[in-house]
Amino acid sequence: MKMRDLTELAGRNLREAILRNSLTTLGIAVGVASLVALLSLGVGLQQLVNRSVARAGLFDTVSVRPRQSTPFGQPGGGRRNPRDAADLVPPRSLDDAARREIAALPNVLEVNPEVRFTAEARHEPNVQLVMVAGMAASSQSSGTLDGLSGNFFSGSDAEEAIVQGDLAKRLLDEGQPPTSLLGQEITLRFAQRQALPPPTEQAASDAPNQAVGPDEEAMGFSIVPSEKKFRVVGVTPASDSGGGQVGFNNAGMYLPLAVAEKLQVVQGADLRNISRSAQAEGMRYPALNVRATSPAAVAQIESSIAHMGFAAFSLIDVTRNLRTFFAIFD
């Protein structure tokens, strides 16, 4: 049979079964399109997550906490594998000596304490409870401040604040845009620590319930209400305007990190620390945020910190699980 005859026969068969052939072609097209769409969705979601976290500068960040204070079920908490060499190192206090030791590790750019506390923000006549966080100067380029209206802090010691858009709305009269808060002052009321002198034997008998640190040089502290005014220099987008905050320190209000440290606010770890017998050198920290020179150096830094006796966690740990999830999804 000649090629011309075969072509004529095929054409005749197609003309005689138009509906069947059309449905077959449509089914193949739908199947291929669905496969391409699902694969594109998986790849697109993975790239979106990676870009968001990378823009926020979180791939090069390691969060460090005292091992004994890490909750069960959280990264670094609970019962750990005793075969891990890092678990054989006794837990240590996260103090000034530990901060200097971590800062001296290779490929470490900076080590900043985590300062977070709940306070009362007042802009007459409105009052609102707010989570306040200290922000380092290196966070200026992070995704936390995407869409910022106004400016970043003018200096590390400036008594200035950056306010999240939703908080700005609550502190302003109805109908005013969040940016109306720029240049105005907010009064922050918070619980502050005040150091007490070391108790004498007589004072200790007179005040047996006074909080005293575990080591000889430690002093107790009293908790007193305090307030301070801050000028608003920046407002981030409100959540309903498409602006999102990405980062370890999501909060309603940000202060320069050095200023937040000087406030001597009461944090959750303070009362726990004074009940421990472990000695500490200088200031104790509930957590430290360590920035690496690149994401490639994070794993080594995290391992070194774990072998010092601390709980270390980074988003590299999370991305391993995400890669497994997206592989199964694909």
Largest sheet, described in full?
Answer: 6 strands, mixed, barrel
What's the β-strand tally? Answer: 11
Provide the spatial order of strands within the biggest beta sheet. Answer: 3-4-9-6-8-7
Strand residue content: 15-25%
N- and C-termini, Cα separation? 47 Å
Poorly predicted residue ranges: 77-83, 208-218, 241-249
**Continuous helix count:** 9
Shape: elongated
* CA radius of gyration: 29 Å
SSE string, helices as H and strands as E: HHEHEEEEEHEHEEHHEHEH
The structural class is: alpha+beta
Question: In terms of topology, how is this protein built?
Answer:
Layout: H1 3-16, H2 18-55, E1 61-66, H3 96-103, E2 108-113, E3 116-123, E4 126-135, E5 149-150, E6 160-164, H4 165-171, E7 185-195, H5 201-206, E8 221-236, E9 253-256, H6 257-262, H7 268-273, E10 288-292, H8 298-306, E11 310-314, H9 315-329
Parallel strand pairs: 4-9, 6-8
Antiparallel strand pairs: 1-10, 1-11, 2-10, 3-4, 3-7, 5-8, 6-9, 7-8
Report what the structure shows:
The protein contains 9 helices and 11 strands. It is an alpha+beta fold. The strands form 2 sheets. A 6-stranded mixed beta barrel has the order 3-4-9-6-8-7. The two termini are 47 Å apart. Mean pLDDT is 77; it is low at 77-83, 208-218 and 241-249. The longest helix has 38 residues, at 18-55.
